[in-house]
Amino acid sequence: MELGLGPTAAGTAYVGDAFDDMRMARAAGARAVGIGSVLGDEASLRAAGADETAPSVAAWVDRLLGPPGVESTCRLEAGPTEDWDRGAPRRR
């Protein structure tokens, strides 16, 4: 029985730096986020199917969370059971 709780594939990001990471994200139905590296630059990751790219994980997280004091424009949705960051200080 499906209760509709928790994260969904559509509300999940798969972050990777290789062509195969973008393929796996697509296969899982997740948002494909390409991080430029020696395995693939941002242009090649976008060509491989990345929905968005960033030059580093830190840059993507900064974009995801937004600047301090500003509401995030995050496209990902946390499900009600997602508590991996419980107790962590919030940036806003």
UniProtKB/TrEMBL annotation:
<dbReference type="InterPro" id="IPR036412">
    <property type="entry name" value="HAD-like_sf"/>
</dbReference>
<feature type="region of interest" description="Disordered">
    <location>
        <begin position="71"/>
        <end position="92"/>
    </location>
</feature>
<dbReference type="InterPro" id="IPR023214">
    <property type="entry name" value="HAD_sf"/>
</dbReference>
<feature type="compositionally biased region" description="Basic and acidic residues">
    <location>
        <begin position="83"/>
        <end position="92"/>
    </location>
</feature>
<protein>
    <recommendedName>
        <fullName>Phosphoglycolate phosphatase</fullName>
    </recommendedName>
</protein>
